[in-house]
Each structure stands twice: as C-alpha cells, then as structure tokens.
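lol forgot to send this yesterday, sorry. struct tokens for the thing we talked abt
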C-alpha cells in the first residue's frame, strides 16, 4: 500500500501532507506514563522491546500519524561504545564525561551491535505491527550533538569544555567525531536491515557553531553518515535536523545530501518554501509552545504552516519535541486539521 511519508520524501506534493511529531511517544500521554512505571530506569525502558514497541504504537492508535518513530534515545550510542550513561529523575541524562584522549581510548565499536540488539528487536517488531500505510522511522543523534553530552557530561550547559577541545586540539577531537560517524552509520544501517524505512539525524546542538567549525563538526559528519547510508541502502531517505542554525539550513541541505530537512520553529516558513523546498522535502515546524496553548492561536499556527508549505514536498511536524505538559487533546486537534487539509 502507498505510504504518504515515503512519497513526500521522494519529492511528491500531496494534497493532504503526511505528518508525525517528534516525541510523539512521551509523558504527555497517560498510557505512556503507565507503561513507563514498569521499568527501573529510562535506559532499561529503551532496551526492553515489548515496552518500547508498545509506547511507539500508542500515539498511532490515538492520532493515526503517517510516521512511527522508533522509541529509543540518542545516548544509546555512547552507552554501547562503553561510556557510563545514566538517566536521573528530575535531572535527565548524566554521563561520565570524557576528558581527553585517555578516556576516549577506552571507547570501542566492537560490541556495538550486541549491546544494541534489543533496539534492533524493537525495530523488527514495529516493522511487522505498524499499519501498512505508516512509515517506520529510525534515528540517531548526529556526532556533534552526541559529543556534547559525552564531553560535557550532560545537556543544558554552556558547552565551554567541548568548544575548547574542538578549538584547541581539533585533530584530537576529530578522533571522537570519526568514532561517532562510524558508529552512528553502523547503527542506522542495522536499523534499516531490521525494517526502518526512513532515518532522521538529530543535531540538536548544531546552533552552537559557526563558520569553519560549523562546516567541520556539523556539515562534514552529517554528510559522511548520509554517504555511508546511501552506499549500503540507496533507497533509504535521510532527514537532517540541524536545530537553531538559521539561514545555514540552506548550506546544510546543499552540502550534506539529505533528502529531507526538519526545521525548528524559528525558521520562516515562507523562506523555507522559497529556498529549501526547491532543494528537498521540508518537515516542520510548529512551535511546541503553541501546542501547549491550544485554541485559536494553535489553529492559526497550523494553518499558516500548511498554507506556506503544502505547495511542495512537505511533512508536517513540530519544531522540537512534544513537551510533557502538552494536553493530548491539542495534539488531536492538530491531527484533525492536517487530515482535513486539501479534502
């Protein structure tokens, strides 16, 4: 059967655009919170296929999205490489921070696939269980963004430590990025072997960098992964998400070879339609705060995006993930507006 999301990524303009939402499986859903209690911690949750499959399917049952994104986390890769990763309630992910070449030398790709076998089992099961018209999306964090957590030890910091390493010892730092390029490509291709039909690379911290550093640590690693995927799985589209990079989205699209680009909420949809949509499929970019607010402001925001971007290859999504305090009814409202569009 026809999969609208795949058609959009092949460059088709659909009268009713396909949609899915980042973090569509999450704490805003009561059924998710109920399942989450069955795991001792978040990593255990990600590595328990029965639970990961169930929470991936929950939003599909409620809202009928065109995409089902694997339930996992970008930090399973450093965990599989041998770095200590913990998720602490109320604080988020905490890693045993890398402090240079000595700690980097302790990381290895040797056991990557064995460690991530439960994730691949989740992908295999989802490939069987999602509806025929739904596209299964695999994902990973892009190297720079994963490196931020590995070097800083957590997110939400000023990132001075990683900036210093990348600036003062770039050849040393490149060893980490190269390790992450290879591990990430291996991980994504294994997801494809198990049934993923689209891949998204999340570069949530891309906006920290400019100029030559943007090219070296954002453009080049993303391009290398896209090329590795294309060599082994030429029909699998990759969506890039270099968050908060402004007009550098255009350079990212042109230089990396992604088939789709996911836009954060700061991007002008009119600019995206005139500049990016001529080059690839665009995805986005509803403000997740509007999704919390609901009402006329939400309707207006959704309709503005649909009006601007539905004239070309387009996938409706958010500019960032659904937040825990989001009313589930507001998500349903957006789904209803999209489904009615063009009919």
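and heres what i got for the seq, position by position
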């Amino acid at each position: 059967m026809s999969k609208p999301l795949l058609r959009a990524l092949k460059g088709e303009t659909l009268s009713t655009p396909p949609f899915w939402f980042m973090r569509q499986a999450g704490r805003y859903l009561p059924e998710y919170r109920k399942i989450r209690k069955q795991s001792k911690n978040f990593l255990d949750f990600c590595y328990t296929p029965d639970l990961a499959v169930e929470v991936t399917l929950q939003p599909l049952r409620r809202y009928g999205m065109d995409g089902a994104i694997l339930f996992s986390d970008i930090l399973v890769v450093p965990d599989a490489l041998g770095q200590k990763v913990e998720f602490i309630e109320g604080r988020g992910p905490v890693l045993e921070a890398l402090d240079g070449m000595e700690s980097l030398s302790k990381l290895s790709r040797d056991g990557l696939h064995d460690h991530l076998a439960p994730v691949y089992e989740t992908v295999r099961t989802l490939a069987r269980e999602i509806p025929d018209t739904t596209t299964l999306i695999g994902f990973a964090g892009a190297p720079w963004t994963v490196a931020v957590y590995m070097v800083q030890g957590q997110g939400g910091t000023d990132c001075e430590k990683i900036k210093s390493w990348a600036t003062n010892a770039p050849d040393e730092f490149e060893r980490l990025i190269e390790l992450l390029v290879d591990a990430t490509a291996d991980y994504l291709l294994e997801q494809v072997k198990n049934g993923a039909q689209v891949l998204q690379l999340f570069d949530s911290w891309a906006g920290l960098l400019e100029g030559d550093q943007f090219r070296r640590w954002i453009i080049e690693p993303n391009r290398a992964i896209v090329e590795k995927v294309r060599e082994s799985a030429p029909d699998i589209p990759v969506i890039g998400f270099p968050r908060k990079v402004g007009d550098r989205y255009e350079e990212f699209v042109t230089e990396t070879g992604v088939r789709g680009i996911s836009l954060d909420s700061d991007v002008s949809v009119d600019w995206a339609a005139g500049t990016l949509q001529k080059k690839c499929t665009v995805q986005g970019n509803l403000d997740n705060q509007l999704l919390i607010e609901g009402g006329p402001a939400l309707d207006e925001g959704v309709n503005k995006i649909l009006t601007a971007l539905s004239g070309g290859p387009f996938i409706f999504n958010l500019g960032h993930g659904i937040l825990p305090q989001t009313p589930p009814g507001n998500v349903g409202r957006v789904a209803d507006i999209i489904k009615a569009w063009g009919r």
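The CA atoms of residues 6 and 327 lie 29 Å apart. anyway ping me if u want another try
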